[in-house]
């Protein structure tokens, strides 16, 4: 285990200020009669709880929004990245916590990881239970995310996600359960740190991701999941409607049903980049199979292998890369970082 453990009695908050961005999500929701769980303004209640648990801590509160994460677009994510970068430049800020809904947390965390080039920690967190629900997990997640900033996390960790007493790399993490408190995991790699009581311990340093400076999301990228027997009509529709790129969630190690192959080939000939990902939660895409539609064959035809990236993260990366007008060889070079 890495020697990077913080204990309450050793934790110092002197001259340290942590910025906390509240973007919305279940962590800032209540259940209302005849309506269900909905967003409410809980910034004051949450900040009071933080001060009770970490006395003398200076907080910079940013009420960025009250958006359920399915309402957050890549444009929102990039705007958030820009604001996080701006506040992190300040000498008095030692780290940034982003409170976020869990449904799309992995996409936002990954975009932040790709677009931020900081020497200070950024930790994304949220909650699986609403504020008034028994066993509300938001308080502890926020407090431990702040403590991760106070360590501080090594810059090599990149952007991290903290949920249910585990710390994950934004590159690797995914939501694996729709309702459980233990809803996040990094299949195949595991957490990079754990919370035990009031302590945080790093267990490994993740592989760093390449960064991209992106000013504006300009590219339209579609994501299409293929299943046995599907034809290529959705691929054709994406190409003909002006998609700048397409991510395909394929089978196994990145293999495409023969019934969809002709439209994939037409799309590649039309110079629309396609990134190939796998529906498997571990293993990723590998150029193993040389039959028609196999990843090895498709790579020779110009398809980009998405490596270990999930389809949703590959879409974010392709969108950012195309927004920087990168060409096919440059796209392949960036995605090559994720082959493991």
Automatic annotation (TrEMBL):
* Keywords on record: Hydrolase
Q: Which residues bind substrate?
A: 69, 102-103
Q: Which residues form the L-asparaginase N-terminal domain?
A: 17-200
Could you give a single Gene Ontology term from the biological process aspect?
asparagine metabolic process
> Where does the sequence pass through the membrane?
none
SMART domains in the cross-refs = Asparaginase (SM00870)
Q: Which residues form the Asparaginase/glutaminase C-terminal domain?
A: 220-335
Checking PANTHER family in the record gives:
60 KDA LYSOPHOSPHOLIPASE, L-ASPARAGINASE
Name of the featured protein: L-asparaginase
Q: What's the source species for this entry?
A: Desulfovibrio litoralis DSM 11393
What does the record give as the organism's lineage? Bacteria, Pseudomonadati, Thermodesulfobacteriota, Desulfovibrionia, Desulfovibrionales
